[in-house]
Amino acid sequence: MADGFVLAVCVSDKKGVPKKNVREGLLIANYGLEGDAHASSEWHRQVSLLAIESIEKMRQEGYEVAPGDFAENITCRGISLISLKVGTRLIIGDSVVLKVSQIGKECHTGCAIFQQVGKCIMPRDGIFAEVIKGGIVRVDDPIKIIDKIPDNS
Fold it and tell me: Taking the model in full, what pTM does it have?
């Protein structure tokens, strides 16, 4: 049974701008989402994920925001991303495997969404992952937690 689902697959050819939902894309092992400005084998933040529930909180505050506006690659529903630990592995669809590499990030004030609304949710709600096994990811693909790192706190 799925822990969540892919709601949007988003790319942009420049950094610091909202991404466009292209509905499906190729995740390349040790690289990221094909065609995306953030993809790189040189760092551990190859792909970013954000829950629609976080975006919906911004909408409730009166902001007009949509999937991709926070420069996330994958917008998902039904999975508590911020409860995951670094090292947790996720499987998307039948075969794509991601390994959580970072929870949140420092927001740079130059990003488009920060300039538009004055705040960004990626620092506290977004997660980043390395692509362990690539493949096509599509809207409506299931997301499963395949191993969860225990919370030792």
Answer: 0.90
Cross-strand partners of 10 = 21
Q: How far apart are CA 26 and CA 3, in angstroms?
A: 22
Residue range 60-74, pLDDT digits in tens: 988 889 999 888 999
Predicted local distance difference test score (pLDDT) of residue 105: 73
Provide the residue count of the chain: 153
- For residue 53, the enclosing domain spans 4-147
CA-to-CA distance for 75 and 48, rounded, in angstroms? Answer: 9
- pLDDT for 108 equals 57
Q: Are 88 and 151 in contact (CB under 8 A)?
A: no
**CATH number of the domain enclosing 123:** 2.40.33.20
Long-range contacts of 95-98 (CB under 8 A, 24+ apart): 95/133, 95/135, 96/27, 96/131, 96/133, 96/134, 96/135, 96/136, 96/137, 96/141, 97/131, 97/132, 97/133, 97/146, 98/27, 98/47, 98/49, 98/129, 98/130, 98/131, 98/132
Average pLDDT value for residue range 19-46 = 94
Token digits for 143? 């997301």
**What is the total count of domains within the chain?**
1
Q: What is the mean pLDDT of residues 20-47?
A: 94
